[in-house]
Amino acid sequence: MMQKVNSRNRQGLSQLVIPLAALGILILFNLIRGIIIGDLGFFSIGTRVNNDGNLVLTGNIISIIDDASALAIIAMGMTLVTAACGGQDISVGAVGAISGAVYVRVLAAFGLDHITFPGVLAAFAAACLVTIIFTLFNGTLVSVFKIQPMIATLILFSCGRSIAYMITGSATPQLNAPLINSIGKTIPGIPIPTPIFLVIIMGLILTLIFKVTNLRLYTQTVGINQGAARLNGINPTLIKLLSFVILGICVTMAAMIQVCRLNQLSHKTLLDAIEMDAILAVAIGGNSLGGGKFRLSGSILGSYIILMLTNTLNDMSVKPDSIKAYKAIVIIIIVIAGSPGFKSKISNLWEKIHGIEKKTVSGEVH
Predict the structure, then answer these.
(1) What is residue 47's three-state secondary structure?
(2) What pLDDT, in 10s, does the model give residues 159-211?
(3) Residue 21 lies in a domain
(4) Which of these, 74, 115, 149, 347, could form a disulfide with 177 (CB 3.0-4.6 Å)?
């Protein structure tokens, strides 16, 4: 029994080798670059008083962890959909715009002049319900009608932001309430950005679900072999739909963070292009894009790697138009390094070298 547990732990740790190595290389690169130019400000963490008079932490590292919060939360949900369905949902950004529109619309119904905790809770619940309906629409196309996930979600990818515009029209009310700032920025008296705590809370909730239920095992089984899963009494359709439900909750939380951070709703820019970064975060985290085994911590690390890379390029004064090209090159290298084919070749090479060493040592002994 202990051997099986240790084997699973080793497999889990090996899955994190690539993201941890990528993170280490980025940190080392910024450290060497800082020593060369005589400025280690990239790693500096300080404090300042914000516009509301609250003491908050500042610095590149804090900004990276904070800015990656929405991406990390969506990456968790994307990981489950990828593991169960063997494909990705490319509509999360557009559905996030719908979620944000519902959130703002409900807040406006309660009154923007005096936003209270019950109003925020009701807005989140309503946005969550609507978002789950849309993600279940995607999930039904995938699980019931057997449409490839990327094709099925292309519908909402194309029209999602138009639906968001229909919900609120051209209205972009300002949400300059203390409670909104506490959700999107910092809680008075706590210098750490609130979105960081929301990532931790979502991660803990999913971890607890995996501990007390068989959801992780069922999701991986469905992703690896649906036929075998069905023979073992697992309903693949139900598991896939459940993964889309969890993704909907993650999208709602990410949309709420962005709306509260910006203090307004922007149909065009809310979670814009985040679906591509979420897919990359899942891949960089060592998870197979073809479904099966997964590790949420890898996807979260992948999110921070993407933001650290972006921040590093900005710090090097790379033009915004060129950043995507540089990111693409680095990410291609990381994804290839983490691919099963590359790992297999490295493993074979290592075995050959190890075999030659054994023969050499054996020859010397004789």
Answers:
(1) strand
(2) 999 999 999 887 778 888 899 999 999 999 899 999 999 999 999 999 999 99
(3) no
(4) 115
In terms of Cα–Cα distance, which of 223, 252, 307 is closest to 126?
252
Q: Domain range for residue 168?
A: 56-317
Ramachandran region of residue 48, left (φ > 0), alpha (ψ -120 to 50) or beta?
beta
For residue 331, being part of any structural domain is answered with: no
Cβ proximity of 179 and 121 under 8 Å: no
- Helix (H) / strand (E) element for 56: namely strand 55-58
CA 212 and chain centroid, separation:
23
56 contacts 193 by C-beta, under 8 angstroms: yes
> Does residue 224 fall inside a structural domain?
yes
Q: Which of 184, 195, 211, 210 is nearest to 72 (CA)?
A: 195
Distance set, CA 99 to CA 237, 249, 306 (Å):
25, 10, 24
Nearest to 160 by CA among 100, 227, 116: 100
pLDDT in tens, 91-142: 999 999 999 999 999 999 988 888 999 999 999 999 999 999 999 999 999 9
Q: Residue 250 belongs to a domain with what CATH number?
A: 1.10.3470
- Residue 216 domain flag: yes
User: What predicted TM-score, i.e. pTM, was given to this entire model?
Assistant: 0.91
Cβ neighbours around 11 below 10 Å, total:
11
Nearest 5°: CA angle at 172, between 171 and 178? 135
Structure tokens belonging to residue 14: 């090996």
Contact 52, 60 (CB under 8 A): no
Give me the number of domains the chain comprises.
1
Taking a C-beta distance cutoff of 8 angstroms, is the pair 96, 255 a contact? yes
What angle separates helix 215-224 from helix 194-212, to the nearest 10 degrees?
80
Going by the DSSP 8-state scheme, the letter that residue 46 receives in this structure is E
**H-helix or E-strand containing 24?**
helix 17-37
Instruction: Please check whether residue 278 is in contact with residue 271, taking contact to mean a CB–CB distance below 8 angstroms.
Output: no
CA 105 from centroid of its chain's CA atoms: 26
Each as own residue / partner, the long-range contacts of residues 125-129 (CB below 8 Å, 24 or more positions apart, any chain) are 126/102, 127/99, 127/100, 127/102, 127/103, 127/252, 127/255, 127/256, 128/99, 128/248, 128/249, 128/252
Residue 23: what residue type?
L
